[in-house]
Amino acid sequence: MxxxxxxxxxxxxxxxxxxxxxxxLVAAGHQVTGYDLHAEARNRLAEAGGRAxxxxxxxxxxxxxVITMLPADPHVEQVVFGEGGVLDxxxxxxxxxxxxxxxxxxxQKVATAAAERGVQALDAPVSGGExxxxxxxxxxxxxxxxxxxxxxxxxxxxxxxxIVHVGPSGxxxxxxxxxxxxxxxxxxxxxxxxxxxxxxxxxAKAGLDVLAGGLAANRVLDLKRESMVARQFQPxxxxxxxxxxxxxxxxxxxxxxVALPMGGFVAQLVQAARSMGFGSLDHSALxxxxxxxxxxxxxxxxxxxxxx
Amino acid sequence: MxxxxxxxxxxxxxxxxxxxxxxxLVAAGHQVTGYDLHAEARNRLAEAGGRAxxxxxxxxxxxxxVITMLPADPHVEQVVFGEGGVLDxxxxxxxxxxxxxxxxxxxQKVATAAAERGVQALDAPVSGGExxxxxxxxxxxxxxxxxxxxxxxxxxxxxxxxIVHVGPSGxxxxxxxxxxxxxxxxxxxxxxxxxxxxxxxxxAKAGLDVLAGGLAANRVLDLKRESMVARQFQPxxxxxxxxxxxxxxxxxxxxxxVALPMGGFVAQLVQAARSMGFGSLDHSALxxxxxxxxxxxxxxxxxxxxxx
Amino acid sequence: MxxxxxxxxxxxxxxxxxxxxxxxLVAAGHQVTGYDLHAEARNRLAEAGGRAxxxxxxxxxxxxxVITMLPADPHVEQVVFGEGGVLDxxxxxxxxxxxxxxxxxxxQKVATAAAERGVQALDAPVSGGExxxxxxxxxxxxxxxxxxxxxxxxxxxxxxxxIVHVGPSGxxxxxxxxxxxxxxxxxxxxxxxxxxxxxxxxxAKAGLDVLAGGLAANRVLDLKRESMVARQFQPxxxxxxxxxxxxxxxxxxxxxxVALPMGGFVAQLVQAARSMGFGSLDHSALxxxxxxxxxxxxxxxxxxxxxx
Amino acid sequence: MxxxxxxxxxxxxxxxxxxxxxxxLVAAGHQVTGYDLHAEARNRLAEAGGRAxxxxxxxxxxxxxVITMLPADPHVEQVVFGEGGVLDxxxxxxxxxxxxxxxxxxxQKVATAAAERGVQALDAPVSGGExxxxxxxxxxxxxxxxxxxxxxxxxxxxxxxxIVHVGPSGxxxxxxxxxxxxxxxxxxxxxxxxxxxxxxxxxAKAGLDVLAGGLAANRVLDLKRESMVARQFQPxxxxxxxxxxxxxxxxxxxxxxVALPMGGFVAQLVQAARSMGFGSLDHSALxxxxxxxxxxxxxxxxxxxxxx
Lengths: 308, 308, 308, 308
What we know:
4 copies of one chain form a homotetramer.
Chain A: E1 8-12, H1 18-27, E2 31-35, H2 39-47, E3 51-52, H3 56-61, E4 65-68, H4 73-81, H5 86-89, E5 95-98, H6 104-116, E6 120-123, E7 126-127, H7 129-134, E8 138-143, H8 146-159, E9 160-167, H9 171-199, H10 204-211, H11 219-229, H12 239-256, H13 261-275, H14 286-294, H15 301-307
Parallel strand pairs in A: 1-2, 1-4, 2-3, 4-5, 5-6, 8-9
Antiparallel strand pairs in A: 7-8
Helix pairs in contact in A: 9-11, 9-12, 9-13, 9-14, 10-11, 12-13, 13-14
Keywords (chains A, B, C, D): NAD, Oxidoreductase
Domain 3-hydroxyisobutyrate dehydrogenase-like NAD-binding (chains A, B, C, D): 170-289
Active site (chains A, B, C, D): 176
């Protein structure tokens, strides 16, 4: 294994995902200058051996690679396009790696605007959640040019385990969207299976064990069937975040001009979960929506009484 | 390991599933008397070392255990309740094991009527398909009394690998229904993922590889993603059979008085596949429905032209 | 207007629909012999000037036309095919008019079996509910031969206002199914409109008034928008009955080999209403399901509290 | 009837809707200065007795009321917020009436920004289409302050027949969204009814006549059932426009935090219609999607052949 070059990295967004990621880059020997709206987050990076910047511009100024890890499309647009933002501050030749989960069209807009300034851009959303970020075990789905991917690869290797270049600009976001569609849908299906089993007087645990041994097997069943049957919904990955992601799924489908009826319905289920007040529970709490909709809500005493 | 007792088994229904199952029982040393409407099927059993009966009554007459493996509810009702059928012919104390996939209420009706004649009954539908039957690797989901399950267990051990007693009469059918709901739904979700990826200009194979490495992982992705992307739909398990099974899912939900919106929609997708003429393709051909509905049908030239 | 011939009519099923219908036929001068399981119902017919029979056979024996008005498929099968039933008792040349709402295939089975005995059969389900039956203002959708329709027409004219021969045997049931599909779907759509308006802080009454004046106009809006906004759900037509009818819609679609995704989902909504305990409310109570699913349930205090 | 005051009106957007609307205002005696990107459209207004402006700023400069009638959200944002746009040019006290169909949050953003400049704003989307615009028979749904509504009322009276103030800023858009949800859904339901009738061998025309006489009655049935059964889909209101509107429905639901499963599915059906290449057909062409999905496509010979 050859020694990796030390890179100067500007890192914008030091939240629950960004903070451990920036920390891993520091630990790997890279020169990381980070910025976050919260001073506390900036201080933690400094304590970890990075450098705290007082503005996006300062974080970006001398960087070879700028990584952004932000909550949603408006934040990315503000940080990239805003006054004093990345494109105002980055010198030509900088590589901008947006690891936020946003709409494919936002990634494409960023890439196009960046190119006009001589800046290269990749979209590189991740899956694996907070645990994946802390353990440097993220899956990273990358859209953009092959050469830019190669340039960012040493950094990705520090942050994740599954790292795939899936296509041109925006492609990373599309794969992430497909992932969230399938994950959300499987939660809904497993929820309907649980509701059907329980309503039929069948032991759900025993029934799901059989499912997990055949063609219905899936990772959600492996990891979550016990907690779902027990109605334990501590996150994990919150409904609110999956709600945001389903918005991206629908936007991606609209942009690609395809109808996704299952996706459309899963988006409504996740919206329902949020509307019912379950936004801060784990996304496995889709079971609560399916249960309420199915007319069964045995674990919610107040509602059960209201049926009487 | 103690020697298993030799049982006299009446086996009704020697089709693509029943034939290899009866063969395994013969090979394991049991005395199997089989009946099927087709003489050819009866002859094959005789060649394999079993005994061919000329009627259901003859197959059932001296049996300790009667196994039925039939296409659908009407066949089970005919064979069990019809003149000269199982209940007309079985002596008290016989154990009737229906391994067909039917509605839970059919299984319960069989069990109730059997009890009135002093016959015990189990519902024991299987998953794993023809390959599972040939390789004696079926999953067997059993509903009925514990003692009856214990009595049939030596036979199940010959036929399958995952053998679970999941609850009272009908429970086996409910678990099978839950399984088919989840399997059908995952096919639809993976199909929508493929359509979204391809319509967005992303390499579907690379994208699905990422999905298969994270929380979206499932056995359908493992086994079928390559053939689906290549549009190869040789069965496997035919759409027509999955259509029958989705009818059972909806009937089970109706009996249990629960709403299953995902299940309801998956049933329509499978119906659509059948209506479009794909009934004899593998159930992964749900992709063709999703593709046609999404407005993309790149592999069906005639339709593509009709858009022009 | 020429004098109508007096017909001898056997009438089986004197419930909330059948009783007033039989009464109208008596009042129009026909000789009506009625049977119902409940003695009280039979007595009421006698008081109204009809004749009470002690069995189906007695009601059918001398009749030129037999009308059946029964709750569901199993009752029709029992009354028509059962021992001492219509086909056992009717003399050749009798016209059997089944005005029950059942599956098209049940109507076709009745017609086929009747023909084997020299009995002609029509399926003639109605819409308009109890009010329509009492006011002799039913819509009657008739399947069967043109000549048989002509023969029954004088009786239909006594019972209804819109009387249409829509096709061969079973066609009446298909049209009734299509009607219930559209009615159920419109209730769901209007419910979603109400939920969207209210959740957005818009006066639902004013908003629906606009809808009722344009292309969205429909009879449900005309008749029910005020009671729905006020959450008044006295029947009218009960959810339990619409649930039965949606089962017929799905069975009709399955028989015709067509996928009906909207119909499939409406069936789940109606099932949900029933599962939630709203079975005896008016079908406009679909609003309660949509509201609960949408995460808004302002009129159900206990549930509202459970969100807190 | 008292004489209405003559108002000076700036009118931006003189397309198929705006042109006849501006013409009606001119004919009613108002002083209309209009702007459109296309010179031809400006010239037609001048020929009709209005005044053609060379820019938004010029149209807005001296106006008491500014009306905008634009295709979609980005156009409204550009015309209102852009350099030289309405808010740059309007003097305090101007009333801005946006009659475009856009997201409720866009209307609210416009109203908020306008208020900061001392400009009042109403959202006043319409239904009734080109025919309604030409015949001055639009339905106008108005959101905003009561006093501002009163001020604009004389202009609305010139343009429409049903004019309702439905609530605060954005409320007009929400009612328009609810309208399009119900209209789209009814088209889908009527389509499924047609498909079920035809697939069952029932004369669709006769069947729909019955539906149109009962609780299923609706204006779509009244106006479109003959053309739908005949597969005539000349617009009318184009699928592409309904697709845009379903996007607004979903955005409005998301903003209001409600789940709308029927709405979500109708949006996918409309997307499918567009993806299949039917974007420029009338929205009654949803029937083509339902037909294709149902597996029946008798009027599309090429697809029919491809099933063979």
